[in-house]
């Protein structure tokens, strides 16, 4: 008697609750971004994300395959959005000092307006970058952050307004640190020093001005 042929695996059924896969994917990522930013990877649950979307876990797994893959897509998307917004700055049209001022101001404003980005980065650092290191695109996505600073620095040095020993990565790190702290540490800082986590617009503007000033004073000759 000839051996029985192995049963063919049934093809995965397409989702039936949407005719717009791109919109569905974007909606999943939007809800998942808030969930992972709020609760971290371990705390966020797929069933809660599905419930918030009024859909099923099956739909989410259909598009992303696993919670890990969804989380990585959220991280990559968060960085991609910041770099895309940064790319709209026409820094080459500005004198070097003004370009650096614009870049620092943008970083401050973006992170303040997008606390989910800050929380996602902080959460991933608590995981020692375990998921982001699996990304095949994250370094390429963020290369522009350094080339942007490098172009500004090179023009500033060439024009004789910036010190000659500026390191683009070091400068980028300093800018990020000064802006990141305002969001990442707002609650602990406010509790310890009795400065509310939600500051008046005038205080936010003053803090922004000080950050720009500190970076410029460091970069200028």
UniProtKB/TrEMBL annotation:
<dbReference type="InterPro" id="IPR041474">
    <property type="entry name" value="NicS_C"/>
</dbReference>
<dbReference type="Pfam" id="PF17938">
    <property type="entry name" value="TetR_C_29"/>
</dbReference>
<dbReference type="Pfam" id="PF00440">
    <property type="entry name" value="TetR_N"/>
</dbReference>
<dbReference type="InterPro" id="IPR009057">
    <property type="entry name" value="Homeodomain-like_sf"/>
</dbReference>
<feature type="compositionally biased region" description="Low complexity">
    <location>
        <begin position="1"/>
        <end position="18"/>
    </location>
</feature>
<keyword id="KW-0238">DNA-binding</keyword>
<dbReference type="InterPro" id="IPR036271">
    <property type="entry name" value="Tet_transcr_reg_TetR-rel_C_sf"/>
</dbReference>
<dbReference type="GO" id="GO:0003677">
    <property type="term" value="F:DNA binding"/>
</dbReference>
<dbReference type="InterPro" id="IPR001647">
    <property type="entry name" value="HTH_TetR"/>
</dbReference>
<protein>
    <submittedName>
        <fullName>TetR family transcriptional regulator</fullName>
    </submittedName>
</protein>
<dbReference type="InterPro" id="IPR050109">
    <property type="entry name" value="HTH-type_TetR-like_transc_reg"/>
</dbReference>
<feature type="region of interest" description="Disordered">
    <location>
        <begin position="1"/>
        <end position="22"/>
    </location>
</feature>
């Amino acid at each position: 008697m000839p051996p029985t042929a192995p049963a063919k695996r049934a093809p995965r059924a397409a989702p039936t609750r949407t005719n717009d896969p791109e919109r569905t994917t974007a909606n999943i990522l939007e809800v998942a971004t808030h969930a992972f930013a709020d609760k971290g990877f371990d705390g966020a649950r797929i069933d809660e994300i599905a419930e918030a979307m009024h859909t099923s876990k099956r739909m989410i797994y259909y598009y992303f395959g696993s919670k890990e893959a969804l989380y990585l897509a959220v991280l990559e998307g968060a960085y991609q959005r910041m770099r895309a917004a940064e790319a709209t700055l026409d820094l080459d049209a500005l004198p070097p000092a003004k370009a650096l001022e614009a870049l620092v101001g943008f970083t401050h404003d973006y992170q303040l307006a997008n606390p989910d980005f800050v929380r996602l980065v902080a959460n991933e650092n608590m995981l020692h970058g375990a998921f982001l290191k699996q990304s095949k695109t994250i370094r390429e996505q963020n290369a522009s952050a350094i080339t942007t600073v490098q172009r500004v620095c090179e023009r500033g040095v060439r024009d004789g307004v910036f010190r000659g020993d500026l390191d683009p990565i070091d400068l980028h790190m300093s800018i990020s640190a000064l802006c990141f702290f305002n969001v990442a540490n707002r609650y602990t800082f406010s509790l310890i020093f009795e400065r509310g986590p939600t500051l008046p617009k005038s205080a936010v503007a003053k803090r922004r001005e000080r950050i720009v000033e500190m970076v410029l004073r460091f970069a200028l000759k």
